[in-house]
């Protein structure tokens, strides 16, 4: 639970996209989760996937940092990298 709170607080420090008029997407809710279904992927695959996505996100955040023009967005990407 603490990790979820930390993640939410991390995103709250991000740029204020509401002043740009960008609609905020609706995420998944409890009605979208079926807890009784079997796993789709093994733990080994999930570790591999998380590792690869972490590598890719460093590249993507670095590119976004160098191409952003708004200072609040630049500050957010600096915090992410």
Automatic annotation (TrEMBL):
InterPro entries for the chain: DUF3231, Ferritin-like
Species, as recorded: Aquibacillus halophilus
Protein name in the entry: DUF3231 family protein
